[in-house]
Design brief:
about 180 residues; alpha+beta; PH-domain like; elongated
Length: about 180
């Protein structure tokens, strides 16, 4: 059931997070490779130069990841304060998502979940807002498929629209189960 006039608006991503999500972080290792490989190869030999360039590229990616991690945590905390969390959702018996995972945001509200998909893994929200009510946990949370959400957790929920699977982070799952249990459903 699509929500009328509702729109989920999560905290905006900063420029550093957008750049990292757009794989700009891979340009620095590529630049290091192109700029440093030839002079190092002449001075140290092929294998030594290759090892140094590859290790420095990996180190630059790790440094960039460490810079982005606190920014993402802050944004996730702001979203959690508003009751939002990022997730992947799949409707088992529906034809709307055809059994495929839809990345997006969920907001846990009293007695219902509100979901809006986003474009790709990092794109903006789009499309209708779907509302699921009559939420019941079916089984216990399990490890989410790595291809859907690495290091995530998966929970199966019974709703008024049938069974849905929701994959999210451990903190998102905690927020969801807290809302579900607090609402008495």
């Amino acid at each position: 059931m699509a929500g009328h006039g509702r729109d989920l608006t999560p905290a905006p991503r900063g420029w550093l997070e957008k750049a990292f999500d757009a794989n700009i972080g891979f340009i620095l290792p590529a630049f290091i490779f192109l700029a440093a490989f030839s002079p190092l190869r002449e001075a140290l030999g092929y294998l030594s130069a290759f090892a140094i360039v590859v290790l420095s590229g990996i180190a630059s990616l790790l440094v960039l990841r460490q810079l982005v991690a606190p920014v993402r945590k802050r944004r996730s905390a702001l979203d959690a304060e508003k009751g939002f969390f990022e997730c992947a959702l799949r409707e088992k018996e529906s034809t709307s998502y055809k059994g495929k995972w839809a990345m997006g945001y969920v907001k846990a509200e009293p007695g219902q979940l509100v979901f809006q998909a986003k474009t790709g893994m990092t794109g903006p929200l789009f499309g209708p807002v779907d509302t699921y009510s009559g939420i019941q946990e079916i089984g216990h949370p399990i490890k989410a498929p790595w291809s859907v959400l690495p290091r995530g957790r998966l929970i199966t929920l019974g709703t008024d629209q049938g069974t849905v699977e929701l994959a999210t982070t451990t903190s998102g799952l905690g927020l969801l189960t807290k809302k579900i249990r607090a609402d008495g459903t």
